[in-house]
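Running co-folding for magnesium ion.
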Amino acid sequence: MSAIRTDSLTKDYSTGFWRPRPYRALDHLTIDVAAGEVFGFLGPNGAGKTTTLKLLMRLIFPTSGHVEVLGRPAGDASVKRRIGYLPENPYFYDNLTAEELLVYYARLLGQRGRDASSRAGELLDLVGIGRERTLQLRKFSKGMVQRVGLAQALLNDPEVVFLDEPMSGLDPLGRREVRALILRLRERGRTVFFSSHILSDAESLCNRVAILSAGRLVATGAVSELLAFDVTGWELVMANLSAATVERLSAGIVRATRIAEGRYALELPIESAPEGLLRELTATGATLVSLNPIRPTLEDVFVKKISTAAAR
Ligand SMILES: Nc1ncnc2c1ncn2[C@@H]1O[C@H](COP(=O)(O)OP(=O)(O)OP(=O)(O)O)[C@@H](O)[C@H]1O
Ligand SMILES: [Mg+2]
């Protein structure tokens, strides 16, 4: 079953005061996200990610095209209770404490007094807000507000969670925690749709991604497929290696970089299996430090797709 479906979704903003002109922020976007998927919605600044999320939430209306969430039109009241949403820049009543805010939202969702406060407590634990929960939100740092926003998005134990840049403003530890949290949601069969321009987040989390550029979908597919022609060569790091040996075997080496005395990084072509050269090297007394496949990262794919899209 599809959790999220868009069909030719298009959004024109009207810009210019005296002579309004349409500005196309999203151009015929068609995507389909299956239930239980963690889907990464990627693109550079201004690509149209937030616009898409707002359309999915029915916070804004499409110029044309359709959106369905859990098989119903976006914005359908029965669907609203089954989804969660973290906006790009969450803004909360900042004279409330984190705890008060979450209890307030839990009550809005129809949870009763004691249930609401235990649920709020659980979620604050989950997102790593400890003693600070009794502080007013105006005293919170950006990353802490982001965490409260995440807790808010999960209050109703949603089936589908929409997160607009969930890692933004978080320190490395916070990013790791959010990654773990998303994986836990996946284990529990939840659908997660998140936007990001940080590709390593997507690489480590997503079943599938879509890449958006200037309002257009430029690629979509499994992360493993997008990295399709994966290995492009090998990087071999050796110690106790002499310059003479490197010279002698240079025919089988694409590039040799001297890192330190006797220590080299050798790039080997994809056509030849690295074992043969490795054997010859170790025969001279050199020792293996590491051997890694060289493959394009999602970053490379991203840059390539976007530059070809721009050239069109
Ligand atoms: N209310 C608006 N009126 C006019 N143009 C808008 C409006 N909101 C967004 N835009 C434009 O639409 C385009 C897409 O914006 P959007 O916020 O969806 O991008 P994004 O992918 O979320 O970028 P970021 O990574 O910076 O968050 C941008 O060019 C932006 O200037
Ligand atoms: Mg955005």
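Result summary
DSSP finds eleven helices and 14 strands in the chain.
Residues 234 and 293 are 4 Å apart (CA to CA).
Job closed.
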